Amino acid sequence: LPGISDECVETILKNGMEQLPQDVRDCFPMEEKKRWQGLWLDEFEGSRFCAAPAEECRFETSGERVWLVFADEIRAVSRRDKHSTDALYKIEFVGRQTLTTGAFGHLGGSDREIVVEKLIRLERVP
C-alpha cells in the first residue's frame, strides 16, 4: 500500500486489516480539492472515472484506472439504475485524488482513488 500513513500501518499491525479506516482520506495523502468532470462507469464491483475529454470509459479503456467513491457525507445520493448491473454517467464534482499511485478499489485493481466531496452534476448516458 504505497503512501499509507504510519498511523494506519500501526492500526493494521495491532488490529488487522479489518480495522483499517474505510475512507481513503484517513490513511493516504490526498491532493488538494479540485473540480473534475468526465465519465464514470458504475458497476456491481467496479468503479472507473475517466476525466474529460474522455469519450469512453470502460475497464479496458487505456490510461490510469481511477476508482471513484462518494464521501460518507454525500453517499445518500441515489445513483444506480436499479434495473441495470452497470451504468455510465457524465459527472461533474469537487473531490480529492490520492497523491500517489497504488492498489485502490475492489481487489486493488485501480491505480488511484478519487473521493467525491461535492456532487455538481450526474447524468446517465443512454
Polypeptide structure, described:
The chain starts with 5 loop residues before the first helix and ends with a strand. The radius of gyration is 15 Å and the shape is globular. β1 (34-43) and β2 (46-51) form a beta hairpin. It has one helix at 6-15; strands at residues 34-43, 46-51, 66-70, 86-97, 112-124. It has a 5-stranded mixed β-sheet, with no helix packed on it. The mean pLDDT is 86. The chain contains 1 helix and 5 strands, in the order αβββββ. It is mainly beta and 126 residues long.
* Number of H/I helices: 1
SSE string, helices as H and strands as E: HEEEEE
Distance between the termini: 37 Å
Q: Segments where pLDDT lies below 50 for 5+ residues?
A: none
Shape: globular
Helix proportion range:
under 10%
Average pLDDT, rounded to a whole number, is: 86
Decide which structural class fits the backbone.
mainly beta
- Strand elements, count: 5
Largest sheet: 5 strands, mixed
Strand content: 35-45%
Give me the oligomer status.
single chain
- Rg, rounded, reads 15 Å
Strand order across the largest sheet: 2-1-4-5-3
